[in-house]
Write a structure and sequence with these properties.
about 425 residues, D-amino Acid Aminotransferase, Chain A, domain 1, 4-stranded antiparallel beta sheet, Rossmann fold, alpha+beta, Dna Ligase, domain 1
């Protein structure tokens, strides 16, 4: 029996899908999670359940000291554990992308420098140091050509990404993104922010798999909703893409070229890009698969779950070629406002829409909901399958229209005071 070490972030949508895929393949799992070290012992969890994924050097040492056996593969289920997985593979002598390469692709500033140096389409950009003072910020705000986008350097899911159309909005965006990054990235002071020109155009995504540097395209997704800001929350993915075949081939070539230039040679690839009259602009090329539960929309085309494909690849087994079987769409149900989730009405009506496969509400009652740019989660996911992309897209939109979410406005906490008698 083969063994895989899975890095399973406590907050990941995908843990159950990876564990189910491993069970189907008959693969033994060494589970490593990042639950709170203070709480995990009280829950009966061992050392490998309370590892600091965001401190990969320390985490690598801890994991190696407590490994029951050497695994045949190491896999991070999402973005949070990518660098740690790369370090573990390197220490264990397992194939895969190096920590330096994974770190480069996670860093928006480093990736922009790579594109610029290699002559690929790249917006004007700069790094804004965390300690930049008010005078410098004011001068920069006057010099910029708007609109611009202010970004945290290593966050994903549109978290910490804000468009600014003028100097006032820019200064506000810098304050807000700094605060977001400071809360969720322990290296925020060293990283600073990225400021870049806004790229107009429609957005697309490519899901792929690298095998010895050769890119296998699993899917190209249309994002039919305009993503013009100010917060860039993604909603709908549809595949197969409705772009002309020649343009789809050019996209694959550009992604493959960026992978070669970055040094990526193995494993999942998720690329985000925009297309306009000037050409194809790569926003990111990440050494991971698509996030959330969106990978479920590919099961019909792949003949198995995306997680099973990734496990097979990591273990050196053959993986299928994607085959065209109609169209699929997913809606990542957006969070309309900040508040406390109370429930949803209209589920049966949404499920009754033709071509809808499932409606999964992942938000838990009582949870505080944070829309972009602060949050990195969704209310849930709507899946549809149809004969063509337009029908699949219509189905998820109609199902969403029939849902009514109850979100309670947060009540500020007031501390009572009393006078001494």
């Amino acid at each position: 029996m083969k063994t895989v070490l899975l890095l399973l972030p406590a907050a990941s949508y995908r843990n159950e899908d990876f564990l189910a895929a491993a069970k189907k393949l008959g693969v033994q799992v060494i589970a490593v999670a990042d639950y709170c070290p203070q709480l995990a012992p009280g829950w009966g969890m061992g050392v490998l359940s309370a590892v600091h994924f965001d401190q990969p050097l320390l985490a690598t040492q801890t994991i190696l000291e407590h490994l029951p056996s050497k695994p045949d593969a190491v896999l991070a289920v999402d973005d949070h554990g990518l660098e740690l997985a790369a370090m573990l593979r390197e220490k264990l002598g397992l194939p895969g992308n190096s920590p330096a390469v994974v770190g480069l692709t996670r860093d928006k500033l480093a990736f922009r420098h790579l594109l610029q140096e290699q002559g690929m389409l790249c917006p004007a950009f700069c790094n804004l140091a965390d300690d930049a003072d008010a005078q410098y910020l004011g001068e920069l705000a006057r010099q910029l050509s708007y609109p611009v986008v202010v970004k945290a350097r290593r966050l994903s899911s549109s978290r910490g990404v804000i468009r600014a159309n003028n100097a006032t909005e820019f200064l506000g965006a810098v304050r807000w993104v700094r605060a977001i990054q400071a809360r969720v990235d322990r290296d925020s002071q060293e990283l600073g922010l990225v400021v870049e020109s806004f790229i107009p155009g429609r957005e697309y995504a490519l899901e792929g798999l690298l095998n010895k540097g050769v890119l296998q395209v699993l899917a190209l997704f249309d994002k039919p909703d305009p993503l013009d800001g100010p917060y860039f929350e993604e909603t709908i993915y549809v595949t197969p893409s409705r772009l002309p075949a020649a343009l789809q081939a050019q996209i694959a070539e550009q992604v493959a070229r960026a992978c070669r230039l970055a040094g990526l040679s193995s494993g999942a690839v998720h690329a985000e890009l925009r297309i306009n009259d000037q050409g194809i602009w790569l926003l990111e090329v990440a050494a991971r698969s698509i996030g959330g539960l969106c990978g479920r929309m590919l099961k019909h085309a792949l003949g198995m779950s995306l997680e099973e494909v990734l496990l097979r690849h990591a273990l050196g087994e053959a993986v299928p070629q994607a085959a065209a079987h109609g169209a699929s769409a997913v809606m990542m149900i957006p969070i309309p406002k900040r508040g406390i989730y109370q429930g949803v009405k209209g589920l049966n009506a949404a499920l009754a829409v033709a071509r809808i496969q499932s409606v999964l509400i992942t938000a838990e009652v009582g949870a505080v909901l944070l829309p972009p740019p602060e949050g990195a989660s969704y209310l849930g996911f709507i899946f549809a399958q149809a004969d063509d992309a337009a029908t699949a897209e219509f189905a998820v939109r109609e199902a969403h229209r029939r849902l009514a979410f109850e979100i309670q406005t947060e009540v500020p906490l007031q501390v009572a005071t009393s006078s001494a008698i």
